[in-house]
């Protein structure tokens, strides 16, 4: 799209909602002014499996301000699962407090409502629960491989003849890669204020997908969708944890009905470790074979992951392995083990972030074995066809990403031999990885309201889309500004309300493409409608103010939708990228620093380089976190998570990171959608871990296949065979 | 959080008088308040002592310094005399926590930091330190961050402070006010204790005693010094292993030395054998290596923290080398 004005699509403008956010004017879920609200606090189980056999609320009830203590004994009956371990989706029901059974440590077993947050919290700590513990609880994935099952035949992928493929190989590597449990931890805690009025419920919530929250609440309470309104004007980060409705919200809705008052529930940071989603641990086996010349002949990627004992979720770790390289013989499979741990769900780039670690480390291992440059090895195996779907890619600039990145980074200065680049106590290493992330585009509705006052048109866009910190308000304002050729000041964007037209919400890298195309269709529809009324030819350039005047109206409303077309269906649509990393590892302490990173992305039309840059930097940092120290540790005897605050759950700090260059290749993929947009929300995190781990190998000669790569692990690891120390 | 009463005072005697066995003195609160939120500490009363006039940094006649217990860690570490005469202390203090926490935390409070053992923090878990006789969850559980020296079957937790490791290396005395109004001095080495059969007691303070001052030994280790802290990220992480090293060189030989480790025991761990070995020796890598071997020879790691032995050796050598090469 040609940018018509200086603030339209493609310009690096400041966020239109930025001022509201930094001045505290942006209202997040728990900040809405609601009269007479009470506060609820969830009670967490302290066993991992068993039954509640006694509840003593007497001490808690005596406390001043306590209004209600809800347990399975007095909870409202909700819709419960009608089969064993149903698949968890973004619109799934979320029953809670429906039985005395406990399935994991930290599961909600009660909810205290009080006049103040502090009273509710203290009262929650005084409710005494007696349990009958079931000793058959299972916590450790690696110890329960025999319990694995195949969640879906469809997720298995096979092509060619793998046995033949490996027999044709001159070199084969087969390795196991482990990734730990991680938690999403958006800055804004999960929170809700829920209130009932005449049989209808209004829920202020921190949700990524408003429509699915409505479906989930109406399904759980068995009430019509029209009786549920969800408002999520601003969301302080989601990373997947706010895709679905979590149980604090259901308890708040229930409690609000029971006490006849609005109820606010804000989970604590430690409850963000037990009740609001996580990325489960994975054990991945990757086997790759290639000819001396570098052509891949076979690829095997088997993933073992855990799901909870109550619901099924499967992170597709093999998704990138299926489509990334030109390898005729491949098999990709995913298996699950039910464990008595918190329910996993999507965390940023579910499948790709973890799967790419295994695949792209394995690629590096095989390149080293073949003594082929790892950049060239990837280029050699490039393909313009997605062999798993037997469809051409709509666009794929991976080779360009790799070559431009290598150039910018100075890859030619890399020593192929590990431990060859030293400076004082430092071992210096370079690493590379390639990335791909699907670029979905989903049906999106939007409404635009035009108002003409004194020759000035104000365009108000309404969608139930969410801004999860990514800049949806800004890119939508830019889109509308372009469509009507009006300055940004004349555009109002209203989001996050289920009263507005339905969108797919924010998540899975589909937000920007879906939202902007949806908004554009509503705007284009307005212009077309106004022209048609006055018989103005479609391609005649008439200003929007003029069109309204010609129609002799001062206001106009248009609603429309955008959705994928047949070209979209005929292609495989992905964003691509390449990561280059330089690490410095201290030879004695095994502490390391990421000195610099170059990330090159080809992700369609970049709507706003500033917000896009922020997204990718955030993704890279989160990917670096996977390597540096992020992990939720499971207590092996009790099944609780022993990491329960930001003091123990180590995300990267500024000092861990250094110079990060993000380059977007100019690209407009018109097959992907009309505006040529592809998602970038998850491209940044994909494969970063592998590029750092590969750089650590290049620096130290140690293959680190278990994330995170902490100093204690790195120090104790042996140098690979064939590396000279 | 459990409700409590709050007593604020600027008068020492009032503070001491207000003390009861279920009270807690509150200074920076960076550790205590967290523990109260987790219901690990549940005092009936908090007595706010940060406003008592124990926040000076003063030079004594013999050239040593006394620092006030209520002075913030940040102010202490950045004080020009501390930077000049006790750079090891300054370096260790600045490696701790975050700028925000160092601004709030005080020197007295830092001495009384409680362990970061996860079993101590989770009230549903067994922990003899939090709840005597309940057992030690870490012994057969997650023990990657735990002690390799001086532990007992009752407790294998470590002391988390960086400041105290530097104090142990340079030498210090803690002055406390007793409830009856008198004062006493406790050598830093005797201030913290090993868990033995009373892991609930971190220090040898008597109930109600209030830390007022820390007297630093004469500044004799300010030419060659280093604090090496190995951790999982570059800031805001407790030490896996840390080493405070300071020494003096006369006639190309080490004439005075202080060496202590953090992250390895229930108290800052003085490396006495290594110190004795190095006295009179040349400050060269081979001697440092031998000293490190001596320092770690009695380490008894667990399944999860075997790494601390090689890491500890490397950290000792690195700290000594860094101290030796300072200014180069």
UniProtKB/TrEMBL annotation, chain A:
Residues of the Aldehyde oxidase/xanthine dehydrogenase a/b hammerhead domain: 23-135
Keyword Endoplasmic reticulum: no
A Pfam family that the UniProt record links to this protein: MoCoBD_1
Gene Ontology MF: a single term: iron ion binding
SMART domains for this protein: Ald_Xan_dh_C (SM01008)
UniProt superkingdom: Bacteria
Keyword vocabulary terms for this entry: Molybdenum, Oxidoreductase
Entry-linked SUPFAM superfamilies: CO dehydrogenase molybdoprotein N-domain-like, Molybdenum cofactor-binding domain
InterPro entries linked to this entry: Ald_Oxase/Xan_DH_a/b, Ald_Oxase/Xan_DH_a/b_sf, Ald_Oxase/xanthine_DH-like, AldOxase/xan_DH_MoCoBD1, AldOxase/xan_DH_MoCoBD2, AldOxase/xan_DH_Mopterin-bd_sf
Presence of the UniProt keyword Cell wall biogenesis/degradation in the record: no
PANTHER family in the cross-refs: ALDEHYDE OXIDASE 1-RELATED, XANTHINE DEHYDROGENASE
Protein name, UniProt field: Xanthine dehydrogenase family protein molybdopterin-binding subunit
Automatic annotation (TrEMBL), chain B:
Highest taxon listed in the record's lineage: Bacteria
UniProt KW Kinase keyword: no
SUPFAM superfamilies cross-referenced by the UniProt entry: CO dehydrogenase flavoprotein C-terminal domain-like, FAD-binding/transporter-associated domain-like
Positions of the FAD-binding PCMH-type domain: 1-221
Pfam families (alphabetical): CO_deh_flav_C, FAD_binding_5
Gene Ontology molecular function: FAD binding; oxidoreductase activity
The keyword Coiled coil is annotated on this UniProt entry: no
InterPro entries on file: CO_DH_flav_C, CO_DH_flav_C_dom_sf, Diverse_Substr_Oxidored, FAD-bd_PCMH, FAD-bd_PCMH-like_sf, FAD-bd_PCMH_sub1, FAD-bd_PCMH_sub2, Mopterin_DH_FAD-bd
Record's keyword terms, sorted: FAD, Flavoprotein
Annotated protein name in UniProt: Xanthine dehydrogenase family protein subunit M
Originating organism: Euzebyella marina
